[in-house]
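Risk register update: the risk of archive-format incompatibility is retired. Evidence:
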Amino acid sequence: MADSTIAQNRRARHDYEFLAKFEAGIVLTGSEIKSVREHRVQLQGAYARVKDGELWLQDAHIAPYASAGYSGHDPVRDRKLLLHRKEIRKIEELMAGKGFTLIPLAMYFKRGKAKVEIGVGRGLHHYDKREKLKEHDQKLDMQRALRRGA
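Archived output:
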């Protein structure tokens, strides 16, 4: 991921276990890209889906640009994601399994272009989350003990 992160979906990293991640371009209008450059993007609750062989980002909120004039944009419109056909086919294959969903993880700039990192993931149950937290705490305790011993 690039240094110039615009928005992250931290909740998704907590609620889902991801099998694969992809980097996609995103088609934006003029007023949308100006709002994105101001970091006025919300990815929580957003998801992506494959429709007619194309990938679409849905429910991502890009706030209206204040100086847009008469031709502003709809903040939660569907936005097309740009991937190669092979990648879209791979996503469709992964999504064929039960309980998988396509979630945007982050939006960032790479060489001046807005990119979206999307992940194919399966929702975690409450007990899975507790187990993950327990493993994380054990790893931290081990690292602390190694630092004290060294």
